[in-house]
Structures are given as structure tokens and as C-alpha cells.
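Our preliminary data section would be incomplete without showing what the modeling component actually yields. Below, a chain of 191 amino acids is followed by its predicted structure, encoded as C-alpha cells that our downstream tools consume directly.
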Amino acid sequence: MALTQDLRLDYVLDTLLQSLRDLVPYDCASILLVEADSRMFLAREFPHSRLSTPISSYPTTFEGSDFPLIRRMLASQSSVLISDTNEDDRWRPFKSHADLRSWLCVPLIAANRLVGLLSLGQTEPNGLQNEHLRVAELLAIPAAAAIQNARLYERAEIYAEELERRLSDLRQAQSDLEKAKTTSLPRKSIN
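Predicted structure:
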């Protein structure tokens, strides 16, 4: 329910990570949104306490196909759980996350369309289990719908602002036209 209390995307993303924090013991979490094809946007990240680099130095976009697990998830739209990243050949750490030892990632699907990925990491091997994956998958369903609604709401706000600007321009043009008509009409002389 908390995900639907506000339509602002920032609120939805923060609420999702906080809700997950109460249910899954993660050290770091990321919400990656699909921009186009395999282009991903890091919409929100909650760093683990040992993170030495500030979030602002992270690239906000990246090519998902550069990461084998992300590429696989984009194609299959299925979840991934890695108990120990040191023992999995597919694992390629993100910048400043080389210390993650357990990782899970869940697709965020709304209206049969992949809108993003929810990624959780632990610094301990086997820190994330199948039960954590199940909880993340259950939360991903309403989260994807809330994210999609928030993005639609943001688009609607942009269109409304643009429409309001154009209406204002139209009113100004009508006013200018009326002024031009009244100043250019020939005056009848009274004899």
C-alpha cells in the first residue's frame, strides 16, 4: 500500500527500498530502469556502509548488455540469485561493489513490459537466500506497477505544463491580434 500513496517517482523508489529494507537484509540495493533496449538508468541506490565512493560519482546510465547477468535478465525477464559471487563466472561487479558476495536481481514487469530491475547485494556469501528472492519477487509486482504509474504521472505533468504554456501563448497571440485590429481600423471623421 505504501507504494501507491504518492505518484511521484522519487517517493515510489524510496518507499520500495525502505519496504525491502524491512524484509530483506541487504547491504546495498539498486533500482535500474530500462531506458531503451539494454540501456539502463540507475534510478535509485542505497549503498552499504562500507561504500567509500559517493553515489554522485556513479554513472547514472550504463549498457546492460555489458554485464552478462543483466543481459540474461533483460532477455529472459527472470530473477537471478547468486549465493557466492566469487564462485560464479557470470558475475561482473558494478563500480565500487567488488565486495559483494551474495546478489539477487528481480525484473520489474508491468503490463507485460520490463520497466526495470531490482538489485540487492550482501557482503557475506550466502547472505541472500531463496526466501529473500521470493520476498523481492512478491514486492516487485506492485513496485513495477507503481513505477510505471509514477512515470506516466510525470509524463502527464510535463504534457500539462507544455499545454498550459501553449495556451498562454495562444491567449497572448489573440490579445495581440485584437489590439492590432483596434489600432489599424480607419477612424471615421466627424464633420
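The longest strand covers residues 113-122. The CA atoms of residues 51 and 167 lie 49 Å apart. Preliminary results of this kind motivate Aim 1 of the renewal.
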